Amino acid sequence: MENEGQDTYSQESIDLFRGSQSEDLEVNAQEREEILPQMNRPAQPSMRLIYEEVCALRREVKDLKREIMKNTPGKIFQVDGSNVKKPLTALLKSFFFTYPWIREDDEELKRQITSVLEGCGWEADRNVIITCFSFASHSFTNWRNQVRQKLVTQEKRVEQMPIKTLQRYLFSAFWVSPSDTEEKINFKVTLALRAFADGHKLFKKNPSTTAIDFWRAFKKNIDAMMKQSPDRWVALEQRMVKKIEAFNKED
Fold first, then answer.
1. Is the Cβ–Cβ distance between 104 and 157 less than 8 Å?
2. How do residues 184-231 score in pLDDT, each as one tens digit?
3. CA separation for the pair 55, 75 (Å, rounded)
4. Which of 21, 120, 126, 129 lies deepest, with the highest CB count within 10 Å?
5. Domain residues for 234?
6. Per the domain annotation, does 120 fall within a domain?
């Protein structure tokens, strides 16, 4: 490729400086000395060519990783212990932040899981996707339990926390660079959790004696509440703020 580029460049230079035979141009010795070094100088590759070569190299590396994973005898994909776990966990935390349940038909989650797999050199076939969703479901269950234990505890006066403080307290582990919209959705989830715990008087009970199926009942509530108008949410926040102030005055 380099030689072809040089030959073309040299021929174009000769045509350019000679012109037609009828013009009978003469080039003096000084001009020849200035022209020849330029003609002999190697052509510099363009930035676009370099970029295309880097992209092609990355594709080759990714294909090679995928081929190695696919052809390793007895290789069964598992999230734990693989290079997928860390980026997949970060992705799942960002989804949990706005809705703490897995939607099995969530095409956006499936698309992003596929992107994570391919970026790690795995082929996103049906079995691998199912394994990732199973890992996601298990993770979400554990994370919901963690949030519930932090909300309904006798070790902290959670009912006295301002909503924003409570939001950070409950979801700090899942705060993966959220957008403003995602923060607002999570604020609603936090507000709904606080109202749910207060409505069922869970702040005054020992968590181990609570008979309510916490997350099943809360899911019905939050699914219905997310369809409500902004005014209903404002009214709920104002009511919770008054309760928080009342709790703090008691101390």
1. no
2. 999 999 999 999 999 988 887 665 555 678 999 999 999 999 999 999
3. 28
4. 120
5. 154-250
6. no
DSSP string, 36-98: HHHHHSPPPPPHHHHHHHHHHHHHHHHHHHHHHHHHSTT----STTSTTHHHHHHHHHHHHTT
Is there a domain that residue 34 lies in? yes
Total structural domains in the chain? 2
Residue in the structure block whose two tokens are 């339990």: 145
State the pLDDT at residue 25: 46
Contact present, 83 and 120 (Cβ < 8 Å):
yes
Residues 124-177: tens digit of each pLDDT? 889 999 999 999 999 999 999 999 999 988 777 889 999 999 999 999 999 988
For 166, the 3-state DSSP assignment is helix
Query: What does the angle CA 102 – CA 105 – CA 110 come to, to the nearest 5 degrees?
Result: 80
Residue 117 in domain: no
Asked whether residue 158 is assigned to any structural domain, the reply reads yes
For residues 59-74, average pLDDT = 60
Place of tokens 């190695």: 68
Contact 187, 154 (CB under 8 A): no
Q: Give the Cβ contact number of residue 243 at 10 Å.
A: 15
Token pair listed for 215: 């997350």
